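User: hey, got a sec? need 4'-phosphopantetheinyl transferase superfamily protein folded
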Amino acid sequence: MRPVSWPDPLPAGIEVYRLDLDLDADVSAERQLLALAERAQADRYARSADRVRFTATRAALRGLLARRVGCQPADVRLAVGLHRKPFLDLAGGDAPLFNVSHSGAHALIALGDPRVVSAVGIDIEACRSNVDLEAVASLAFTGSERRALQEAGDPLQALYSRWVGKEAVLKAVGVGVAEHLQSIGVHAGAHGRYILECAVPEWSGLHAVALDAPAGYAAALAWRAKEST
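Assistant: Yep! Here you go:
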């Protein structure tokens, strides 16, 4: 399972990689690349598929970061910041930014050049047809989002498109997703771009775009460009 470059045109300073997962695979080799804490985290998953998903994705991330900073994947130093968001602990230089998401049989990894972007977030979701639209909308969507959902020709597609955009933005900000779902409104714009409504002034300057996801999935990328000095 090797990450492949995302084919869509992407914002300057950002690369996205897709990992197509074999959830029945033996990931013992990938497990050796993980730190002890990461192995323990993988072991806490009750389902084998979840353990494979986490292990393969984290090993792929380590491989991509290792090539960026010039070390072996097992030597990549990952630390955890506020809201359990991981970051690269790199002394003596600007560390590449990254964000990861996985769902079903796919994972996405976004890498950001810290000279160009100051934040990056990504999300992918398998679109389940039996989702309770009203329950999700009432929990996670703003009033304007709920009205747009009611008017959508394909409510399921509209829901997932907004959901992944919302999660990508919140992951870029680096806050707990569950606590802030209604702090950001996401609306469809031209050419896959989202129009964002931020309830928190400090979140201004964020951008987000829908990604051309595999069939049955929705995906989005969010970022903040670094201000020129």
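Quick note: Residues 48-69 form the longest helix (22 residues). Let me know if you need anything else on 4'-phosphopantetheinyl transferase superfamily protein.
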